[in-house]
Hints:
The chain has 51 residues and is an all-alpha fold. It has a domain at 25-51. It has helices at residues 3-21, 26-50. The chain is flat and about 30 Å long. Residues 1-37 form the Sin domain.
Amino acid sequence: MGKDQISLDREWIALMKEAKGLGISPQEVKGFLKSERVNQKNSKSALRSYC
């Protein structure tokens, strides 16, 4: 496991702990991240179409 992977794992653990403290399930976090990824792709496509 590389340094980047360890850092990412630590960030993910911290995110999940914070979400748990707020009553947010892991599935909700994953769903949100997936939806944001789709939104970013759509934004990039819209920007390309505009330019």
